[in-house]
Fold:
Amino acid sequence: MGQLFNRHVVLGITGGIAAYKAALLVRELQERGAKVRVVMTRGATEFITPLTLQALSGNPVHQELLDNEAEAAMGHIELARWADLVLVAPATADFIARLAAGRADDLLTTLCLATSAQVLVAPAMNQGMWKDPATTDNIAMLEQRGTRLLGPAHGTQACGDIGPGRMREPQLIAEDVAGLFSRDLLDGRRLVITAGPTREALDPVRYISNHSSGKMGFAIARAAADAGAITTLISGPVSLATPDRVRRVDVISAEDMLQAAQAELGQCDIFIASAAVADYRPVAAAEQKIKKSSEHMQIELVRNPDIVATIASGAERPFTVGFAAETQNVESYALAKLQKKNLDMIVANDVATSEGGFNSDNNAAVILWPGGRNEVELTSKEQLARILIETIAARYPAAPAA
Ligand code: PMT
Structure:
């Protein structure tokens, strides 16, 4: 798989002759594993048809800001959240000016304002327009705000002029984009993560469990492997495919999970506990199926071991990150767990909302550590996972194992 595996790229196309190259760019991004959604300005549709981009990207092309049908399918805010990256190629002088002015008078400019993802622009215009002080000022302003510039290239232009202003070649743009994601933040670090639910058997056919799908933990495993970590995923029973370059250990119960986690100690620099571990298990699982008899039934439960607290209390503890799934007082309860379980970091996860938490593709969280916090608004679990890995990578050297 390429370095853009599963990355969500919104490709914005504006109205210049280089728009035809956007078709090749879609292919180049997809070949590296990216999922691409295309947004076109009206001008762009004069140079290349939306149908071409729809056929290549495999998704409907987004064109209008005020479009009931499009908003019902994937609205502009949803698109802004979906994006891991917004790439505008080609970006005309007019689009660059409107972006610099903070305009939101069409879908693409609105999306660029609304997204929290990195915005990249690949300018394409006549060399005189590129050199004009107005364009120079607009570019400087965008760069100052964090927008990244790809190109332009120098050479012969469609109008016959020679100079700077050609759009960078699609293959080079795709390589630039892939380069953004291939930073080896955790190169060679050994990272172990727990994910999914546990099942605590009542009898051979019944168990106590919860709604965890494993999506959050699997996304973290993927982000860790992308960041260069040697990643082991200890997973409860879920129906998800193992991410590339991740070693997976399947377990059923909390006790199994603890055993698997302890077996990794000594070969683990960073431990992340995202699993929703059952706090209690039946005192004894019946050997045979329990038969229906009286109206009421009582099951005696006993506390399960706390896996993350056990790992964090060891003499050779790794950098230990927990999660706190809460429905109220989210941040204060999470901080209490950070301290009580002797963690280096905790992800406070409000699981009372319908938009994030258990089994959703999205999540919102506050990442907390002693003296610091990083609030991540509702986004995809993939994106939250990458932010968590970046936050861990930034903190890890500062807090080596005790
Ligand atoms: O799997 P998904 O559907 O994607 O949902 C993701 C999630 C909501 C499960 C995940 O984001 C999350 O919040 N995971 C933590 C769930 C949880 O059990 O939280 P807790 O507050 O009960 O536990 C606190 C911490 O202790 C967690 O790191 C947990 O893994 C750990 N723990 C808890 C009990 C136990 N016996 N052993 C533990 O290690």
